[in-house]
Amino acid sequence: MLFLNLWNWIFGVAPVNAGPIGMQDSLLQYELKFIDEKWDWKQLQSEYKVFLVVNTATGCGLHKQLGQLEELYLKYQSQGLLVIAVPSSDFLSQEPLDGAELIQYCSLEYGATYPMTYKMHVASEPIAPLFQWLSKIQKPKWNYQKYLFNAQGHCVFVAGPTQEPLALESQIQSLLSV
Question: Which of 89, 111, 144, 166 has its CA 20 to 30 A from that of 103?
């Protein structure tokens, strides 16, 4: 366990072993509300089998990851991958945008077509229920913490902020082939 913790600290990546690690919870138990009302969380749960949840911030130096998230989404959406952006201003207030303005910016700058939730507190009070649970798995260290979930909504992999989304491709492919 010490090695895994050291590995995660250095590389910002942690495979999640031991089955459903989020206690008895599942991503599918949490309510998500999207900025664009065309997205319905219950319907998305039945259409997709792999979920990548990322806390995002357009004012962060890591913002180019929004484009890589779109690359993954376009490449694997038809096979069952859903990318979910969760905007947050918890780290140095680096998400100045909200609502339709946020969707428009991400669409114009990065071609983003994946769903985006309303802003959530991911690390500062009051922490959203989803991130209270995810913090038991691994608390977000910064913007762009990535949580990968299987079809049952169990977290199977966590990648830190500096780990680029495209580096998760092999884990995504493995989950999609199940």
Answer: 166
